[in-house]
Amino acid sequence: MPKRERPILGVTMGDPAGVGPEVIARALADSRVHDWSRPLVLGDAGAMAQAVRICGLDLEVRALPPGREPEGRTGLIEVLPLSDLDLDEFTPGRPSLAGGRAAAKYIEAGAAMALDGRIQALVTGPISKEALNRAGYDFPGHTEMLAGLTGGARVVMMLAGARLRVVLVTIHAAYAEVPRLLTGDKIIATAAITQAALEKYFGLTRPRLAAAALNPHAGEGGLFGKEETEIIAPAVAEAQARGLNLSGPYPADTLFFRAAAGEFDAVVCMYHDQGLIPFKLLHFRDGVNVTLGLPFIRTSVDHGTAFDLAGTGRADPGSMLAALKMAADMAAHSNQPVHDLSRS
Q: Do the strands 156-160 and 298-301 form a parallel or antiparallel pair, or are they unpaired?
C-alpha cells in the first residue's frame, strides 16, 4: 500500500501506570503495523520512552511537531504529547489520580481528532475505570465515555476475532438487573447497528446474526423463564420485518459452537458475560473490542490495565496488534479519505 494511502491511526496510551505503554511499544516494534498504517500515539512521550526501555526495545520515541503527519516507519514511535508526567513520581503498576486524568485527556483528544477526520480510526489502550471515576469522569468504561463525547450516539460493544464475533444488548450491568433492562427495542437496535457496521466496515453482504436466548434451553416454552417468548422472539420477528438478517433465539449452550464453526457472522448476546466468556475462551490473546455506532472507527485491546504486569515488559501485545490491524482494515473497507495533518 503506498505510504500516502495508509490510514493514520490515533492510539491512546491508556492509563500510564498500566500495561498500555508497553503493549503499544511492543506492537509498534512490529514492522507489519507500518505496512498497514501510520500510527500516532496520543499520550506521554516520557512514559512511552520509559516503556521502550522496560521492554528492551531499540526504538526512537519522537514528539510529533504541530501540523506534521506521522511518518509511520519501523523503528520510530511518534507521539502527540498530551501530558508531561513527572516520571520521578510515577511508578508503573501504581495507578494515580494524575494518571486517570491523563488517560481521560487522551480519549477526549482522540475522539475530537476522529470526528474532525484528522485520524481515520481510534485505537485505545486499557484504562482503569476506578482511576477514571476518581478523576471526575462518571463513565463505567470507554464505550460509554465515547458515546458521551459524540453527543450520545447509540453504540454497541462488539468483541471480534477470527472465529467469533459477539455483540452485547446490555453491557456493564449487574446480572440481576438484566431481565429488567432487556427490551425489544434494545435487541432490534443492537442488531441494526451490528448489521450496518458489518456491511460497511467488514465487507460482509447481509451478515447472518443470531440472537442468544437468556434462559436455559431458550426458556423451554416458558418453564425456565418467559423472556424468550415475551421479549426476544417478538424482537427477532420485528427485526426480520424491518429487513434485518436476525434469527433465534437459540439456546446459548450450543449457539456459540455453531457461530465459531462459521454458521453465523455475529451473536447478539443479552448480557456481558454471556458473550465474553465464550469469546475469551477462543480469543483471549488476540480479541478486539470494537465500538459500533460511533461516527468513527474505534477498536481497542480486549484486556485491562494489568497493573500487576506493568513495568515488567512481559505484557502480551497480541490484542493491540489485532486492534491495530482491524482498525486499518475497517478504514480500508469504509474508503475513508486520508487527511493531510499539515493542512489542519
A: unpaired
